[in-house]
């Protein structure tokens, strides 16, 4: 068929030429943007970034530019025509995820989903948790919340935990979930009766409160993807390219989730270093990275050994120490910036003498014109900071402690979040316990027990009980306070803006 013209009596070539020109221009622009970044990269980094299909393990030594490689890899995928919605990048901290997002936004207006394992799990559960009988508005309990709930579980089981037992139980439940073990897995294990009872009661109470804990954000998605083929296919078709940073620190649940996500396309790009594995105490398995080639027989492995952070003497010492590690990929870090100063090692009689020496060294550097903001003191545990602070104060050297309590760990923030949780969750008893007396409303422990008993007897939600507070076996004053509390929650619930909700809570409670 000889098609010579489209509508409008123009030859086909006249219509198509601008389209081809536009496409060619966009392609050339993308290639130019990509290759202008490439000269700054070393050969191994370029190979990693240019990799397209199939699994790839990037063994990235400390200071070898691995974050940049992940970012450039994402940009390369976008510029090759991969849709941003098809890319999932996973990091281990929200700070790292935000840093990656901002660096990609500086170059591309189409950032993909860059998140942590737990944030990804929370996002997935918001879409799918109703399959497990939870509402999509479920609460996520932090450490304080889980401690409160565990105390309730011990009380309900008529158990009195000894000192430290609560912390041990919380850790044991966390370990079980990270190993993808449910209460039923312990039901018939010898010596596990006590643990089975508490774990089982804890999970039941979480569901009653329409809540999950931090570890459930990994556990529940794994079980949903294993059991619901349609969900697995949908998520696999959505994310065709998956990148994971710090792969050496993945635990069994994260490893299992990764395998489920990449099972169809196998376009998995992981970056890690067995020599930097430091989280085995919380379930991380170095075998996940050491066994990568066994998991993916067609995998490619690239080593990034050029270090951009340290001088030669530091790297030689690091290489000599890490060479004694067992079960590792052999690599040798090197630097192009020269040997630098030799490492100094000092020994002291006690921590006080050590701190005084460090303070004098800092003082001397400042006298020589060094900017105090360019000096950092690193210590292994927080307990060591006291002697250092005392020594610095004696010499009147100003300092700042980095770290401490995070914004979301502050009491007032936790209280506000508890109020907000109660506006969307009808049964969050942990949040209710936290703020029912913030400000004081005269609802003591005895009244709380009566409310809980009434809830269990009537099988109604907490909010429904508050709505009908006149039926509760409480004093007239307590019922009046519960009525005010209920109406506050209802009025906040109707406000669309989060900031206005918070303003309303602060105003009405006099916080």
Describe this structure in words.
With 511 residues, the protein is α/β, with parallel strands linked by helices. Among the domains are: 139-209, Arc Repressor Mutant, subunit A (Orthogonal Bundle), CATH 1.10.10; 346-404, 3-Layer(aba) Sandwich (Rossmann fold); 408-509, PCRA, domain 4, CATH 1.10.486.10. It has helices spanning 12-37, 43-50, 66-79, 94-105, 117-128, 143-156, 165-178, 193-208, 216-227, 229-238, 252-262, 287-290, 292-295, 312-322, 351-367, 385-394, 411-424, 429-435, 445-458, 462-467, 476-493, 498-509, and strands at 5-6, 10-11, 56-60, 87-91, 113-116, 139-141, 211-213, 241-244, 268-272, 300-304. The strands form three sheets. It has a six-stranded parallel β-sheet, with helices on both faces. Strands 1-2 form a two-stranded antiparallel sheet. The chain is globular and about 80 Å long.
CATH superfamily of one domain: PCRA, domain 4
- Highest-level CATH class of one domain: Mainly Alpha
Which structural class matches the secondary elements? alpha/beta
User: What proportion of the residues is helical, as a percent range?
Assistant: 40-55%
Tally the helices. Answer: 22
Main sheet properties: 6 strands, parallel
Question: Spans with pLDDT under 50 lasting ≥5 residues?
Answer: 1-21, 34-39
């Amino acid at each position: 068929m000889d098609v010579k013209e489209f509508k409008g009596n123009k030859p086909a070539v006249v219509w198509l030429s601008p389209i081809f020109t536009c496409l060619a221009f966009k392609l050339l622009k993308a290639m130019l943007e990509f290759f202008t970044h490439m000269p700054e990269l070393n050969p191994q980094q370029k190979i990693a970034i240019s990799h397209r299909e199939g699994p790839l393990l990037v063994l990235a030594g400390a200071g070898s530019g691995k974050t940049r490689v992940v970012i450039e890899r994402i940009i390369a995928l976008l510029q090759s025509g991969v849709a941003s919605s098809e890319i999932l990048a996973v990091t281990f901290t929200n700070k790292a995820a935000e840093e990656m997002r901002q660096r990609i936004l500086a170059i591309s207006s189409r950032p993909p989903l860059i998140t942590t394992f737990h944030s990804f799990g929370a996002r997935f559960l918001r879409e799918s948790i109703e399959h497990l009988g939870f509402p999509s508005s479920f609460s996520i309990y932090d450490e304080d919340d889980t401690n409160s709930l565990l105390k309730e579980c011990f009380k309900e089981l008529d158990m009195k935990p000894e000192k430290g037992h609560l912390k041990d139980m919380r850790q044991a439940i966390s370990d079980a979930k990270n190993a993808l073990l449910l209460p039923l897995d312990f039901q018939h294990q010898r010596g596990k009766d006590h643990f089975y009872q508490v774990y089982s009661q804890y999970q039941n109470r979480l569901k009653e409160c329409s809540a999950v804990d931090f570890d459930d954000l990994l556990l529940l998605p794994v079980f949903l993807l294993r059991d619901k083929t349609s969900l697995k296919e949908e998520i696999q078709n959505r994310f065709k390219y998956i990148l994971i940073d710090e792969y050496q620190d993945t635990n069994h649940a994260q490893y299992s989730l990764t395998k489920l996500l990449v099972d169809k396309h196998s376009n998995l790009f992981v970056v890690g270093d067995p020599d930097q594995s430091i989280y085995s105490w919380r379930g991380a398995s170095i075998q996940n990275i050491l066994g990568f080639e066994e998991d993916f027989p067609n995998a490619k492995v690239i080593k990034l050994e050029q270090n951009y952070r340290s001088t030669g003497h530091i790297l030689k010492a690091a290489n000599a120490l890490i060479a004694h590690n067992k079960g590792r990929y052999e690599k040798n870090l090197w630097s192009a910036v020269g040997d630098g100063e030799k490492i100094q090692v000092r020994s002291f009689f006690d921590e006080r003498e050590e701190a005084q020496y460090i303070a004098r060294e800092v003082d001397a550097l400042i006298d020589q014109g060094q900017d105090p903001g360019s000096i950092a003191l690193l210590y292994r545990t927080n307990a060591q900071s006291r002697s250092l602070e005392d020594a610095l104060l004696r010499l009147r050297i100003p300092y700042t402690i980095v770290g401490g309590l995070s914004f979301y760990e502050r009491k007032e923030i936790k209280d506000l979040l508890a109020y907000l949780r109660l506006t969307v969750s009808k049964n969050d008893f942990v949040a209710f316990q936290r703020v029912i007396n913030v400000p004081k409303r005269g609802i003591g422990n005895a009244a709380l027990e009566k409310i809980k008993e009434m809830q269990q007897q009537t099988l109604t939600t907490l909010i429904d009980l508050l709505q009908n507070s006149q039926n509760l076996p409480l004093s007239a004053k307590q019922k009046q306070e519960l009525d005010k509390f209920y109406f506050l929650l209802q009025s906040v619930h109707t406000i669309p803006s989060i900031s206005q909700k918070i303003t309303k809570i602060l105003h009405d409670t006099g916080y």
